[in-house]
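Something for you to look into today, if you have time. Could you write out one complete protein record for me, on any chain you like? Leave the record below and I will have a look.
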Amino acid sequence: MRVNRILLLCLAFTFAAELSNAQSKDEPACKDSPLVGRFPGSFISACSDKAFDGYDFTIAVNKQEKTKRIEGKYLQLTYSWPRDTASKSQVVRNLNNTLKAAGYTFDYDSGEFGDFTVHKGKTWIMEEVSGGGWYRETIVVEK
């Protein structure tokens, strides 16, 4: 029993160190959105935070891809994820499940290609997951 506690404690410290290390690599002045957490082990490689801007979100209308321009409070974060410990499909599933659990409505989902658009109320989010080890999260709160 005591050995199990020690092992769990060691795993917790390892995970905390990994998360702390990932966040210490973040670009200066960039921080996560409170709406969506990052994929474990990833770090922010670029960000853009604007009081007002627009973005063309991909949506599906009658099974055809269209775009819908949303304007308002704009945040775009680009994360690099650990390709040595995670696959693109793991990142896609993680982000997809996180947004489903948070109650977002899916307006577009490319499946394993890794692009999807969701919204809840006036908040719109587009996730674009690359096979090259990065994913981009664009969030616009409509005004």
User: Anything to note?
Assistant: The first strand starts at residue 43 and ends at 61. Helices lie at 2-24, 88-101.
